[in-house]
């Protein structure tokens, strides 16, 4: 914006601001009577500018969606419930092009305007609790414009419009017209319309007044924000914005009507709510009356003046001492009128009713206090073979209440055979994984006291134990670091754990022992799997926990039918492995407790396939079309997604060759997986099973 133009625009803005805030001050002075809360608001908007003038035949084919962009800044304030005053500034560009046989004109004008508008919102006709309201507006503005036209190209050659529709560098009726070269408009408006003086108007003012008339709607977005959409037609007092008037010469002559332009816009505003002033407290009593109340008052009527009463609000009729406090004959801190045990021994702990607390009461209260830390924590561990597309969006579940378990062991690399036998002797032991560590836990207690009791019992058997929380299948530490060693020592002295009776035998089914840890998908249908890695490098898998040898035998048969060919029974008692005979079973032949056979899985139906895609929702039509054209693609449903698998190969090497061919066909994310009786596992695990490792 030029210096003088900017100065004039700033002056207009200042005048409008004085008008708006002057009006606001006037309204503020009347606020007590009208009860209208003043909320000055500021908004910023953008929209499309369209021109209606001599060039372009009044833009009879004008569309608000095909035009130049404009920007608007606005400051507003309500006058009353139905009228609002607004100061605005508008900046943008107007343009129009006219191309015909007799006349070829064009212009572009940079405009800047600023002024004041009044808005009426039809308050008397609408619901007071409305969210959307229509409005109409009228105002007055100062307008500045700087108009230019495109008369020549970048090389300085003037445009000459020929009757055949072409543009050339020489006039059609010129003597040397045969030498004319066809050129194209560059739409660079390089020539100042006023300085070109094509119609002899001279140095006219590029400034005018205008009256904007508008219509639109406002939506309340809440929290002080609103959105407005509307259109405003600006009736100017000049016909020189495009440089063509009714006094223009020859083909340039216009219709003599003043120029107009239309601004269709969208804006977002924010209203500033003033803070209500709080009424200052004013006492209704004189200073002398307040002094009399302070020096002579006895609010609770216990005979001790308020200024000397250390225990105000004593109940009526209760005996008090010289300080106004209720009497406490046994000195336990509970007044006599509330004490259910008046003769408490000196120093003994008491409850709120003055009754002496036993050791059991103290333990129960302490554990309930620790249990109050049952908060919702977050921990997760996700394993995946590959991308599964976009996750399904669901509502977040309600926080689940935690239960308590006792950790009896953990491993990252491996544990001793002695520790394995001790863990497997516990009938309710379970395996849980957190990060890279496998935890062995027992119990599932609703309250912390029961978990502490089990922990103390297991400590008496020599286990290194810790109480932890279980929430949504995840293992979490107790809030605040759990129970400290000193607290544990106090709890043990208050409630020593009774020794457990001699344990019964626990019979389990060992599914196998493997050199490498297998994929969890192989055991996905086994809910009570216990995984133990020995220091010798073997990883053993166990299922079931039976006191009855017959029930254990039935479970073993089910495991054999599920493909675990190496499944056999093992028994444990009081921390050691024992024979099946000692567990109550009958042997059909000799049993060698030192033999630990490696397990095996039935690989007769083990195949390798190529996964070409995974989708949690609908498959895109283009992708599904590719699968149909490829052929031999089958879906396999999972818990959260559907896998699409191609082919079926006896070895991993054959599947890898197929994968490379698929990648050459455009399936870049294809990779090989194993299929064990319909369970999808890692290709590495499938290869190890096939090789008997």
- Which blocks of ≥5 consecutive residues have pLDDT under 50? 1-35, 373-399, 587-598
Average of per-residue pLDDT values: 78
Instruction: Give the strand line-up of the largest sheet.
Output: 1-2-3-4-5-9-10-11
- Counting H and I runs of at least 4 residues, what is the number of helices? 12
The end-to-end distance, rounded to whole angstroms, is 81 Å
- Per CATH, the architecture of the largest domain is Beta Barrel
Radius of gyration: 45 Å
User: Can you tell me the CATH topology of the largest domain?
Assistant: Porin
What is the count of structural domains? 6
Coarse shape: flat
Q: How is the main sheet built?
A: 8 strands, antiparallel, barrel
Number of strands: 26
Query: Which percent band covers the strand fraction?
Result: 25-35%
CATH level-1 class of the largest domain: Mainly Beta
Keywords:
693 residues, alpha+beta, Porin, 6 domains, 19% helix, flat, disordered N terminus
Report on this structure.
- There is one protein chain.
- The protein has 693 residues and is of the alpha+beta class.
- It folds into six domains: 3-147 and 187-271, Porin (Beta Barrel), CATH 2.40.160.20; 151-185, no CATH class; 299-357, no CATH class; 359-391 and 399-419 and 436-498, no CATH class; 501-599, Alpha-Beta Plaits (2-Layer Sandwich); 606-690, 2-Layer Sandwich (Alpha-Beta Plaits).
- The protein is built from twelve helices and 26 strands.
- It has helices at residues 3-29, 31-34, 193-196, 287-296, 359-371, 417-424, 448-460, 485-494, 549-561, 621-630, 652-664, 683-690; strands at residues 41-52, 68-78, 83-99, 104-120, 132-149, 160-161, 167-168, 191-192, 207-222, 225-236, 260-271, 403-411, 430-434, 437-445, 466-471, 474-476, 506-514, 530-533, 539-546, 568-573, 576-578, 606-615, 633-637, 642-649, 671-676, 679-682.
- The chain has an eight-stranded antiparallel β-barrel with strand order 1-2-3-4-5-9-10-11. A five-stranded antiparallel beta sheet has the order 13-14-12-15-16.
